[in-house]
Amino acid sequence: MTSPDGARATVIHADLDAFYASVEQRDSPRLRGRPVAVGGGVLLAVSYEAKRLGVQAPMGIRQARGLCPDLVVVRPRFDAYTAASRAVFEIFRDTTPNVRGVSIDEAFLDVAGLRRIDGAPSDIAARVRRRVREEVGLAITAGVARTPFLAKVASGVAKPDGLLVVEPWEEAAFLGPLPLGRLWGVGPVTARRLARFGLYTAGDVADLDLGLLVGILGPGGGHHLYRAVHGLTQTRVHAETRRSIGAQHALGSRPRPWREVEGVLLSLVDRVCERLRSAGLLAGGVVVRLRYGDFTRASRSHRLGHPTGSTARVAETARRLLDRDVATIARRGLTLVGVALTDLSDAGAYQPMLGEPTTTLDATVDGLRTRHGRGSLTRASLLSRPPP
């Protein structure tokens, strides 16, 4: 199996574990550690405690209880699942603008180009998993690979609550021994058909000519499986139309001086603006998100009159939004601050606005950080002591 020169694993497939059942266990302590299923006459989702006993979705309740007499069946609460999904996808979009949702509980994230800003893709995936657990209270599995197909297969192998990275030079060794049913797009009927020809693993299929596969599965299925086992599936994540770029920072519970809070805010602005420009985008809106000492949240937003890629303009707007909450923060404390850029558009579609702060400095700063690492240049307000 070959891959383009210099290709790396930069696509993350993030998939919530036993989503509906996990939300029920999160919200009801009596269900934690017990075999749980969500549904009515037919089960929609089951917890891993139930899966280990052979219970699957979709399955009838009578059959499920025959396998697991202690199964707890709860009615679905779709409002709760929708709210949890939105919170998780907000974390995805805070991580990268290139997000494509697959369903309510899974998505692809393309983090190519973020290595200098946010670290290696494996570190980014680990951070996403940690944030989902801490902020939403759910376990999520991530697979990281060169293509969306391989990333999804990797997350399936890593489940539950795992992280698996497959670099291009590991693809053949990773795919070869996998049962064909593990491959995305190979269902039970296709797997049984291939088994009649003595084909059980991806490695078995990789040894076949394309013509033989087409003869067994037809043009569509044959070409798909051939591309899959040879690493020839598409490499790009086609992002959703509505996107945002964001970052946030937990401050802890101790009181912090206003200058320090403002310094953290500006550091986040630097980060998201660098991401914005590296993606060739402009922002039409700025959002500041706050979590107070009593764990309540607030969001302050401002729509810009003209899309921008200027750090100075975003910083000015974010400061004004934060200033609205000076009294509230003094009274209730602040445990988290975040910044998001919204209403994103292609930078090539707009002419610079008259009076727009120059982006020459931004480009210089971006270049220095790309060449020497993000820590090579920082704001004076973030230094532990005043600059000379």
From TrEMBL:
Keyword Kinase: no
GO BP: any one term: DNA repair
Keyword Hydrolase: no
Cofactor needs: Mg(2+)
Pfam family membership, one: IMS_HHH
Cofactor comment text: Binds 2 magnesium ions per subunit.
Highest taxon listed in the record's lineage: Bacteria
Binding site for Mg(2+): D15, D105
Keyword line: Cytoplasm, DNA damage, DNA repair, DNA replication, DNA-binding, DNA-directed DNA polymerase, Magnesium, Metal-binding, Mutator protein, Nucleotidyltransferase, Transferase
Annotated compartments: Cytoplasm
Cross-referenced InterPro entries: DNA/RNA_pol_sf, DNA_pol_Y-fam_lit_finger_sf, DNA_pol_Y-fam_little_finger, DNA_polymerase-Y, DNApol_IV, PolY_HhH_motif, Rev_trsase/Diguanyl_cyclase, UmuC
Domain UmuC, residue spans: 11-187
GO cellular component: cytosol
Site, Substrate discrimination: residue positions: Y20
Recorded catalytic activity of this chain's protein: DNA(n) + a 2'-deoxyribonucleoside 5'-triphosphate = DNA(n+1) + diphosphate
Subunit organization: Monomer.
Family assignment from sequence similarity: Belongs to the DNA polymerase type-Y family.
Protein function: Poorly processive, error-prone DNA polymerase involved in untargeted mutagenesis. Copies undamaged DNA at stalled replication forks, which arise in vivo from mismatched or misaligned primer ends. These misaligned primers can be extended by PolIV. Exhibits no 3'-5' exonuclease (proofreading) activity. May be involved in translesional synthesis, in conjunction with the beta clamp from PolIII.
Protein name, as recorded: DNA polymerase IV
Organism of derivation: Salana multivorans
